[in-house]
Design goal:
Length: 142
Amino acid sequence: MDVLKEIVDYGIIGLLLALSVWAVAVAVERWQFYRQIDPSHYPNQQLFEIALTKRLVVIGTVAANAPYIGLLGTVLGIMLTFHTMGTSKTIAVSSIMVGLSLALKATAVGLLVAIPCVVMNNALRRRVAELITLYKAQHQHG
């Protein structure tokens, strides 16, 4: 069961932190790209939109799945707490509370990763919509 504790502490939380770094890196790259993009270099709106939305799925996917990854860590932590209680044949309220509070940290980290990713995703998608509208305005015929 010590392996399970290590999986929750280092595996789940480590995965969440790695995903958050990846999402932030993509967001920074996209913001820089949007600052210097020239819509006139794209022959049609579809190619422009493909260039704008490239890698945004990473941020949305991290935002959508981080709470579930955190919840998985919590479930594993609770399982570990119950297993430890069962094998030690003691019911000490303090050890139960400590085990459960430690298990919940994975959910907290999952939410701390997901919430900023949702904000970044929404802000970047809003910028994409603005740039597409600008493209349309610049390429109107008639």
